[in-house]
Fold this sequence. Notes:
The protein is α/β, with parallel strands linked by helices. The strands form two sheets. It has a seven-stranded mixed beta sheet. Strands 2-1-5 form a three-stranded antiparallel beta sheet. The N and C termini lie far apart (about 60 Å). The protein has helices at about 20, 25-35, 50-65, 105-110, 115-125, 145-160, 200-210, 210-225; strands at about 5-10, 35, 40-45, 70, 85-90, 100, 135, 165-170, 180-185, 190. InterPro entries: AAA+_ATPase, ATPase_AAA_core, P-loop_NTPase, Rad50/SbcC_AAA, Siderophore_ABC-ATPase.
Amino acid sequence: MAGPLFIQRVHVDPAEAPEWAVKTPAIEHVAEFGLEFQQPITILTGGNGVGKSTLLEGIARAWGFGVEGGTWGVDKPRAQDAMFGALTLTTGPKAKAGYFLRAEAIARVNYFGGRSHGESVMELTSRLIPNALYLLDEPESGLSAVAQMALLAQLHALAEHDAQVIMVTHSPILTAVPGAQLLEVDEHGIHKREVEETMAFRAMRDFLEDPHGIAEFMAQWASDQRAP
């Protein structure tokens, strides 16, 4: 049985948030309804530009992670951060600890010299410890399908040892972490989903059923877009 969650609920004050952020479906939804975390692992998926990473970064700032990500307590949020003062958290009794992984930051910094981007991600996630909070922004970046399956297993094991994971992903593999609270963001807000209902899964399923047909269709579509 998992212990109490580090973060239980997220709130956004739209009067304090930037106008551009409030216009994204994720932030607009949380401003109106809040967002409650019900499982040790919460997965946010959906299309580009709907505010998933903005929401995750706001959670990270409110918890006390630095702008560039990394271990908790190394840096503090600053007033110029986009969601500073607008997003607040309802937290549990646990002491603060954990890691904020930003795909952009790990792409700029080689944490483990001489290794590929994907190898750096896997090395980093293998060092995650139980009983801490982990905020992961597109951790699948640079990972093969097999490595994503290995990451899925790592995250599930963490959740069984009192960790909490909040993850943004486009990977249909990572949406399938057993027992996760799976949420999809679209233009209408945030919705509970089953894996098979997500856009990520359906797009990959359609491609695998007819890879040549889909590839030819998309190539023709791109050609039509370039036509005068």
